[in-house]
Amino acid sequence: MPAHGKGAHMSLKPVLDQIDSDLDAAMERLFDLLRIPSISTDPAFKGDVDRAADWLVSDLDSIGITATKRPTTGHPMVVGHVEGNGPHVLFYGHYDVQPVDPLELWDRDPFDPAIEETPKGRVIRARGASDDKGQLMTFVEACRAWKAVHGEMPCRITFFFEGEEESGSPSLIPFLKENADELKADIALICDTGLFESRAPAIMTQLRGLLGEEIVLTGPSKDLHSGMYGGAAMNPIRVMSRVLANLHDDTGRIQVPHFYDGVPDLPPEIKAQWDGLGFDYAGFLGDVGLSKPAGEQDHTALEMIWSRPTAEINGIKGGYTGDGFKTVLPSKVSAKVSFRLVGQQDPHALREHFREWVKTQLPEDVTAEFHAHGASPASQMSTDHPAFEQTRAVLGEEWGEEAAFTGCGGSIPVAGYFKTYLGLDTMLVGWGKDDDQIHSPNEKYDVESFHKGIRSWARILDAIR
Ligand code: BES
Ligand code: ZN
């Protein structure tokens, strides 16, 4: 028997069988975690976030993994270790969830999970089912099955669960710096992404960065009657509307000076690879009631979401928005704007350029205040580690379709931080589907995603050990 690596005594097949026979129990465990409303952004749920961390500690403990809840100045981290032969992997997932509002758009209590039959199959309905508790538990359940069958883990694993991902990870960088030695491994694995077109396994090799800015414009010192003052007094909503309308030109190009500094052209070989994926352009927008890509018109929709930067207005607040009508001329208006970043775009430099650009558009008597909401650069994964090819080679068997290396429109800043602070490459794989409604009402995770996701992790662990 080899000193390390694949011993013939640890085969995959009985692990997959164990996963199949334990699926109902695995779902019960996930339901327990989903019942804890671990909303990290809302201080009212601080105790619940803490309880979710405790739950994970004891769940890891139940499969022989020594784990601890680690306090931070925000929500706790959970770190667990288990010995094993072969490569040392660091697995990351987040156990916090997004707020549930608007609650009235949910068809059930977001923290009372249930299995629902839908025309597309059985789904687990709850906040966090897909992002990211269900995904996190696919890895844990694969480890549980492996341990149950073989009495040990397929390789050495460090588990690292965060409770602040959905609120900008304020404690993450200090925690990585302070615990770098403990967290170092050969490669990081993150399960917080989705399948390609809800169907084919995807290893995401690039993530967009994210910059968040809130602008508050103030005109008159108080709300005014729009008949008494309208015409003479400058309305800050009028100014905000113009500023926001100026973000893009008619071709979808973003107008903030220096915005495109550091945006690379898509390398022809990547473009060719993406073109070869057979992306269903009509279906992608058609599924959400749209037909025409709204970004930079000289790029494909796939490029718009994977390799091009964006400016999006996420929310506007100001004036009278209640029922009925009120002729008010408001004192203040605010807007939240986020930018998805690619390549070498520098979020901190961009924040300054954006603020300058807004200020140059303000007429007399209107002043601006800005609030910063997160700034993380894009990251490009190196796929040199053998785990990438080993993983790609085995996922096809589970999903009936070859795995692809793809881009990703979302942002997972921790992947870049693993590189910067731990020197670790990250492999991003996940089983979410485009219609999981993450961050939205009626979030769900397909039972298929959960079941095949667990089986996929068993296959990956088997392939890389
Ligand atoms: N799981 C998502 C990232 C994601 C979204 C991956 C869609 C693949 C497809 C993650 O939890 C998330 O929502 N990230 C935020 C950024 C974070 C810094 C708040 C995002 O992308 O908006
Ligand atoms: Zn997530």
TrEMBL record:
Single Gene Ontology MF annotation: peptidase activity
UniProt cross-references to InterPro entries, sorted A to Z: Cyt/Met_Dipeptidase, Peptidase_M20, Peptidase_M20_dimer
Superkingdom in the source lineage: Bacteria
Keywords assigned: Hydrolase, Metal-binding, Protease
Keyword flag ATP-binding: no
Domain Peptidase M20 dimerisation: 207-365
Descriptive protein name: Peptidase M20 dimerisation domain-containing protein
A single BP term in Gene Ontology: proteolysis
